[in-house]
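Many introductory courses stop at the sequence. We go one step further.
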Amino acid sequence: MNEIPLWILLASIAFLVVMSAFFSGSETSMMAINRYRLKHLVKEKNKSAKRVSKLLDKTDRLLGVILIGNNFTHTLSTALATVVAIRIWSDNAVLAVTVFMTIIMIIFAEVMPKTIAALKPESIAFPSSYLLKPFTIITIFTNFLKELLIKRKFKIKTICVGNLYIGGTGKTSLCIEINKILFKDSNFKSINHHFIYSGICKKCK
């Protein structure tokens, strides 16, 4: 790292800040875009609208790409800035540079791009879709791991009886009675998790 010219490190930091701003702005623009107008543009065979619509059809992949991109650019830019600080000054400047990079990232890579994207979502979403679409390939592997972990973690079969939120749907009494029947006549165990009453079959474990 010491052999890399200083101007390349500084240029890399600037590029990473721009990329982070791209991911932040893309996220806001994709979420803020008018869906009705987007559908209308898709019907009119607008290529950019079609591309954005396909990305929004798989929101988990889209947000996964943006999250990975943002974390990568934030971490790497701070690491490079630390290297620059040590080379120019000393180890004592590391904390100051970290604080400085945090301020830079908040202003130029978060607040500004998200504000612009919220005001003009189409102007940001359509061009950004060109880069976001190929990046979604990265999430195929991460989604596979996620699904694998979820399947292994939640092997117990559950039966949702209803919502027990008081004053909500008014089905509390019915849910309790159904749960009592399941617990009495079957080999079930009741749990209460986030206002949901469920039956867990002990034989299904």
